[in-house]
Design goal:
The chain is mainly α. It has one domain. 66% of the residues lie in helices and 3% in strands. The protein has 14 helices and 3 strands. It has a 3-stranded antiparallel sheet, with helices on one face. The longest helix has 33 residues. The chain starts with a helix and ends in a 7-residue tail after the last helix.
Length: 384
């Protein structure tokens, strides 16, 4: 099964991307703010082409190179996160300063979300650190506290941008990686308690987040205000039933559901394709989790294993959080559904992660199979 894990992974990703494009075509034309109703679709296709190219390149570059240059990527990610607060560069939307705009350089259509790239940068540094200090992976300082303190800098910057969801996701990934590296369970338990405490404090201290949480507790009461998205999402999932209303026949997207093509695309799948379609999406992410972890376990060294588990954790935990939010199991956090939701930065990050997994798979299965594309048989190692 392990020798076919990359094939299953790629098929699962292609299936999710295909579904995302179909649902975007079905949904975005009704909710776009642009005069051209196909603007978002064209933009997503452009990001997909960039992402596929980046995925192939990532699959070809020896993953050890990312460890050698990890601190450079980490510093660059922190710099980009800090630029979000610069008025001439950063762009604030709905009270969150998560984006860098290209307006200052004459590219008004360009908008990047640095937190997506910070995910990989933090993973590179953590995997590198826990590989260098392998002998001390079970200790409190170098095996647990220092790695989490390293991750705390970008997490703090992301939290200051009012992106609590991404901050929580990177924190969870960091805890997962140090645990896999050998951190003691009691340390991880304490980290989990502190993380939950930090989330609770953020919700309490940040007025908008506190109001969102209160709305989550009583969606019926707040269905015309902050609870609107999750309330309408429940209606969409209920209307879909077992087999759905039919592709393109969804009603909630007709100006009822805010962000129907981005963070809340999963209920649109449920409304138009029914419970069967929704469960198929969940099952596909389970395939990514299982076969991604198989690839990680077959990595030829510790660094590759930590990278593999980290990438799988980031993608699948984000999917779980999105599905939890859109089904009203969790408070609204504003995270897209990987490979499916509209959003270029997240799609690019996810495809970069897939490319990294493919490179780990290739090196774990050497000598390379003759069926590999030629570029995947090559081991490219850029000079530092």
């Amino acid at each position: 099964m392990a020798d076919k894990s990359a094939h299953v992974l790629v098929l699962a990703v292609v299936g999710l991307i295909s579904l995302g494009m179909v649902m975007l075509l079905s949904t975005a034309t009704f909710v776009t703010d642009h005069a051209d109703v196909y603007y978002d679709i064209r933009r997503q296709i452009a990001w997909l082409m960039i992402g596929v190219g980046a995925c192939v390149l990532m699959a070809a570059i020896d993953y050890h190179w990312w460890g050698k240059t990890a601190w450079w990527w980490f510093g660059g990610a922190c710099l980009l996160l800090a630029l979000c607060f610069v008025p001439a560069v950063g762009e604030r939307i709905n009270g969150s300063a998560r984006w860098i705009s290209g307006k200052s350089i004459g590219m008004s259509n360009l908008r990047l979300q640095p937190s997506e790239f910070a995910k990989l940068a933090v993973l590179f540094v953590l995997a590198r650190w826990l590989t260098v200090f392998r002998a001390e992976s079970g200790t409190f300082l170098r095996g647990f506290l220092y790695p989490l303190l390293i991750a705390a800098l970008p997490v703090a910057l992301i939290a200051a941008e009012m992106d609590i969801g991404s901050a929580a996701l990177i924190t969870a990934m960091a805890v997962l990686v140090v645990f896999i590296a050998g951190a003691k369970i009691r340390y991880v338990a304490v980290a989990g308690i502190f993380t939950l405490g930090g989330l609770a404090a953020a919700i309490y201290l940040i007025g908008n987040r506190r109001e969102r949480f209160l709305a989550f507790l009583d969606l019926e009461k707040f269905k015309s205000g902050l609870g609107l998205q999750q309330y309408r999402a429940q209606l969409a999932l209920g209307e879909g039933g077992l087999f759905g209303l039919g592709l393109g026949q969804g009603r909630e997207k007709l100006m009822h559901m805010p962000y129907a093509h981005t963070d809340f695309i999963f209920p649109m799948v449920g409304e138009e394709l029914g419970l069967i379609g929704s469960l198929t999406v969940v099952f596909t992410f389970v395939l990514i989790a299982v076969f991604g972890m198989l690839i990680a376990t077959q990595a030829p060294d510790r660094f590759g294993k930590l990278l593999g588990f980290g990438v799988v954790g980031l993608i699948c935990m984000q999917a779980a959080l999105n599905i939890g939010v859109t089904t009203a199991v969790l408070p609204n956090k504003g995270l897209p559904l990987p490979f499916v939701s509209y959003g270029g930065s997240n799609l690019l990050f996810c495809l970069l992660g897939v490319g990294l997994l493919l490179n780990i798979y290739r090196q774990g299965q050497e000598p390379a199979h003759e069926s590999y594309p030629r570029i995947l048989k090559q081991k490219l190692t850029p000079r530092v």
